[in-house]
Amino acid sequence: MNTQGHAYVGRKGLQIGLLLGVCALQAEQSGAFIGVGLEIGRANKEIVGEKNGQVFQVPDGTVKLSAAKPDPNPDVVGGNECAPDNCKAMWSGHTMTSTNATNYGRNQPMFGLNVLAGYKQFFGKKKWFGLRYYGFFDYGHSNFSNATAANRVSVFYLNNDKVDMYTYGAGIDALFDIINKKKFAFGLFVGVQFAGNSWTSNKTDYYNKGFVIGTVPGQCAYVPDSGNPCDGTTPANPTGTTGEINPASLISTGPLTSHINNTHFQFLVNVGLRTNIIKHHGVEFGIKIPTLPSLYYKGSATKGGNLYTLSETFRRQYSMYLRYIYNF
Question: I need a surface site. Which of 69, 115, 220, 240 has the fewest CB within 10 A?
């Protein structure tokens, strides 16, 4: 019996097996994966008010003082207590367009996270190219805040407009490995995603109350805390804190009949760089770009024979993310 021949064949088989094992590490393998990441990007909120289908001018919310004596409280919002023997806080004649299109506060950072799970498949002997198919979920939060105390009466300038965004769906990415070594792979990916896109806002009830379309001449802009209205008569209603808006000085649309559509279809482009380390671990840096705006709120009211409408549209402009991937 040729034991040397069998030993030689055994050694060759072992060498071939080890070589195949090394080759397997040199290229990424097909298989399932999961991932989790952090996101930072920007979101845009567009508010538009229309009168009979046209954008119009609304009070800008600033005030001017009609002073008989020097202002005793220059640091108080509105600058005074509206005392009749001192000074009178009146709405100015300034106006602004009934949209926040030129308002810096309409565009704010959005922070969030993402998760995904799916399957990647590589092709060819060296496995430099592949595809991955996955389901995903993104969450983002943004706070649209740009108001000052003097213009807080307008829905176009608001503080603490907190918005949450949820995106969920399926995607496909093409994978290209530039470096494909024994225990390390580096490349890029490009793909598309098809998703539902849902938004929530904490200002919906505020919008439903209507929005300011004018001011009343001669009325004090702020409720006095001195107990005396601007004209020196006895106040008809309880007085408030200095700086509280006097509702009698404002003309509003009144309550709006509203409709909310918080979920829309979204199409996203997804690109980035990726690594695969020691078979099971990966790190990615990517940029995700949604392409479709979402009309979230639509409200309307009739006042003085005119139709007033208010619409709010959200859009996540982009998000950059850093993600960890585990490959099974």
Answer: 69
What token pair was written down for 140?
Answer: 């983002």
202: left (phi over 0), alpha (psi -120 to 50) or beta: alpha
Kindly list the domain boundaries of the chain, sorted by start residue: 29-56+98-211+255-328, 58-94+213-252
Which tokens in the block code for residue 102? 């030129």
Residue with tokens 């980035």: 272
Mean pLDDT of the residues in the chain: 81
CA-to-CA separations, 250 to 105, 141, 220, in angstroms, rounded: 24, 33, 10
Contact 227, 239 (CB under 8 A): yes
pTM here is: 0.77
Which residues, 6+ apart, have CB-to-CB distance to 172 below 8 Å? 131, 132, 133, 134, 191, 192
CATH of domain 29-56+98-211+255-328: 2.40.160.20
269-322 pLDDT tens trace: 999 999 988 888 999 999 999 999 999 999 999 999 999 999 999 999 999 999
